[in-house]
Amino acid sequence: MEWPNRRAILQTRSRCKNCQTELILIDIIPVFSFLLLGGKCRKCKAHIAQAHLFTELMAMLIALASVFVFSGWLQVVCALFGWTLLFGSLVDLRLRILPDGITIGLIIAGLIIISWIGGLEFFWLGLFGTIIGFGAFYLLAKLYQLLRGREGLGLGDAKLLAAGGAWLGPFALSWVVLLACFFAITSLLILRLVQQKPIKSDTALSFGPALSLAIFILWLWSGRDGVTIHLL
Asked: How many structural domains does the chain have?
């Protein structure tokens, strides 16, 4: 698997992977098209991966949560934040990388947003959270590599935790890591039950999705009054 050709994405319309039929409006309405077409291509009847339906449902859930928790312009901010985390998670699941464009972009955006909300005080808290988030995972990754002789935690995860620190502040980072570990362990147990394979010490797992879910849940929790962001 490789990173898709971004120029081709911008210059060409979406097509069926099986028959190359160009997709029209009826084929690309989120969730509705999948259900209407029975999860199959309109022309060749090839099955559409259920991952597409899952992604569309998650994107809709993010939008609904954003509208329910926040008000005004923060609804848009929250939705864009969640969709970016979702995209990064999908890339990490597929390619085992977290692109810098996502992680660093989220760090910059987080510092701007919380500064707009809470002024200079929130900016310094966000910056402090960014430094602690990256530093903690960077040191952990180097320590693991020193002790085990192989990479166990990528720098993409460190940058993503730094983004969490930028959006939530330093005091939320322990909760982010705790929740992310819970989600990761739960997914491993589910994977074991589904695939009937034992979990080994070298079992690889993309940690980005668990981190992203933890960060977004805590972001929603921080704005639970629907108006104001309270850094944890």
From this structure: 2
Among 204, 232, 202, 207, which residue's Cα sits nearest to residue 218? 232
23 and 87 within one domain: no
Q: How far out from the chain centre does Cα 15 lie?
A: 25
User: Rounded CA gap, 15 and 73, in Å?
Assistant: 34
- Both tokens of 1, joined, read 């698997």
* Cα–Cα distance for residue pair 182/16, rounded to 1 Å: 37
Structural domain that includes position 198: 65-222
The CA distance from 49 to 16, in Å, is 11
- Return the pLDDT at 227: 43
90 and 139 inside one domain: yes
- 73 shares its domain with 166: yes
Q: CA-CA distance, 221 to 219, in Å (whole number)?
A: 5
Per-10-residue mean pLDDT for the chain, 232 residues long? 48 67 69 73 73 86 93 92 95 88 95 91 92 90 74 82 94 93 87 69 76 95 62 52
Question: Ramachandran region of residue 45, left (φ > 0), alpha (ψ -120 to 50) or beta?
Answer: left
**Separation CA 42–CA 44 (nearest Å):** 6
